[in-house]
Give the backbone structure.
Amino acid sequence: MTRMTSSARPLLNRRLAEFGTTIFAEMSALALSTGAINLGQGFPDTDGPEEVREAAVRALRDGLGNQYPPGPGVPELRTAIAAHQQRRYGLSYDPDREVLVTAGATEAIAASLLALLEPGDEVIAFEPYYDSYAACIAMAGGRRVPVTLRPDDGRFRLDLDELRDAVTDRTRLLLINTPHNPTGTVLTRAELAAIAELAVERDLLVVTDEVYEHLVFDDAEHLSIAAFPGMAERTLVVSSAAKTFSVTGWKIGWICGAAPLIDAVLAAKQFLTFVGGGPFQPAVAHALTHELEWVARLRTRLSEQRLRLSAALTETGFRVHPSAGSYFVCADIRPTGEDDGIRFCRDLPARLGVAAVPVSVFTDDPAAWRHLVRFTFCKRPETLDEGVRRLRKASARRPPG
């Protein structure tokens, strides 16, 4: 028998009351129940490099990580992370003091915000933002302040004047994400330089989510803001094996930053998961050291699939915004005669046999974003081909203009 509380007070605390079931769970369940191709949730339907998976199996068999690993992460992985940051960005981190392994990038962000924020501190995040950002800010007692990425010649651009105006005496931290989910924007060198200048001028901390760092396309270039003048001592760089190596279920992420920042985050992280993913940590160390050629091939394939999906969406009647990075493209549904992304996404699986995600759920101003829908292209070629076939079939049914 279920026992009910007699208190009139809601069970869920007020900080989390605005957050219900995630849109990803809702759309994935809808895709499953209708047999739709799931182009909504951003997880691959293929596994990562075989040798990386074998490294995890060897770790299990050899007893590496079957018990609690060290709190900051196994030394082999921390060393590999530090070497990766040095090779790729020229950033020098002490693997013993300035690298922390986490249960995915989500825990890295949550622990950072829990450690660094006091109740009432303001956090500026670029809108639309990954949904966990808002929840993590709320759990830390902070106040989120959105700065909107606005469409400009197809690309979503940061308004630097709006960003500067958003900073107040209560602003503690900038939470940035590049390559950006859900828009596919990659912040330019000029944009990052301006953000860095503002952070130094106003003495702000920065948490930068770079989980799609290796997945940039065309002539886009991913740069880490931590490498800009004055930023190393105030920036926490977050990344993960999940998207780079197609192992989203392993939940191995990390944070790099100056030792005082990492010490603060570890103080919070130790009371969340404590540790996790022991046998996967040596495997990710192998991946960072030996499998970046596999990642380059993945990037090429994803770029081709991005173009194929974008073309199919355009033929179906959507207005597609170009994507320079990540797993995603955003499409404007208004040319199809629709204007409500949430309703559209709830109807789409049964109508076309394809699932997508409305962008408005990632914003503080849903009305301004209600016409945009996010699709992912990170699926197997045959899965994506079937999704494209279903979209194009809808285009063929549409009466001529």
About this structure: DSSP finds 14 helices and 14 strands in the chain.
